[in-house]
Design brief:
Structural class: alpha+beta
Oligomer: single chain
CATH architecture of the largest domain: 2-Layer Sandwich
CATH class of the largest domain: Alpha Beta
Strand content: 15-25%
Radius of gyration: 20 Å
């Protein structure tokens, strides 16, 4: 399984564990799954034609990440006490599909589901996509030559059509990957691996997440985040600042 091999690669290179996001499309009796895995500030996706199970989709995303990352030589380790920020070249802008998924999570709605529309012969097929959000359907305005592009167009159209409620609180966002920083610090100090506990039960913050992290027997809680990953980064920041200040 490429998921296991990818976990081992992350441990060898002192990266945070892989984080998977899965989307489901199609009819209930014949669902199709696609997965995205985030590693060290970069995202890798499963094949465009999808998979028939969540496990298979995650494994395909892990395969794409492992083949790309294992071909790159391991970076030199930092000197003791040196902290490395993420490279400036990392592309942090979310795709329309990811932004729509975050929107649904913030609003407490079910995740978007996509349905393809085909036109033309098999060798010259064109695509549109319909995305369903909270019982409403939004269709991509034009045909595309790739299903991925049609889904992105449908997600973009949905985002432009859905109400953007001002009452949704703006949660704190950390640009630095404090999970990576905390993990490197724990390894340097020979602490146990940080353990995260994340929940979506956050009063007054619908669709948000909160997380705690345990390091060397101490538990730290961060600010709520718009995603599980962000909540864990907020908790990691609190923990890292504590140990940094104590030293």
């Amino acid at each position: 399984m490429f998921k296991s091999r990818l976990n081992e690669l992350c441990q060898q290179r002192r990266w945070a564990p892989p984080e998977y996001e899965v989307t489901r499309e199609g009819a209930d009796h014949m669902p199709l799954f696609r997965a995205t895995v985030a590693i060290n500030g970069k995202e890798f996706r499963s094949a465009e034609d999808g998979a028939w199970s969540v496990r298979e989709a995650e494994n395909l995303a892990a395969m794409a990440a492992f083949e790309r990352l294992s071909a790159v030589p391991a970076p030199l380790r930092p000197a003791p006490g040196e902290l490395i920020s993420p490279p400036a070249s990392i592309h942090l802008e979310c795709s329309p599909k990811m932004r729509l998924q975050i929107y649904c999570q913030k609003q407490g709605k079910q995740l978007p589901s996509y349905r393809p529309i085909y036109e033309g012969p098999p060798h010259l097929r064109k695509f549109k996509s319909v995305v369903m959000v909270d019982g409403q359907e939004f269709k991509s305005p034009e045909f595309c030559y790739k299903l991925k592009e049609a889904e992105a167009a449908a997600a973009k159209f949905a985002l432009a059509s859905l109400p953007q409620e001002a009452s949704v609180p703006v949660l704190k966002v950390s640009s630095l990957s404090y999970k990576n920083v905390l993990q490197e610090f724990a390894q340097k100090e020979r602490f146990p691996f940080p353990l995260y506990n994340t929940t979506s039960d956050v009063p007054d913050y619908p669709g948000a997440y909160k997380s705690t992290v345990e390091v060397k027997g101490l538990i730290f809680q961060g600010d709520p985040g718009n995603s599980k990953k962000q909540a864990e980064m907020n908790a990691a920041k609190v923990a890292f600042q504590h140990f940094k200040d104590s030293k």
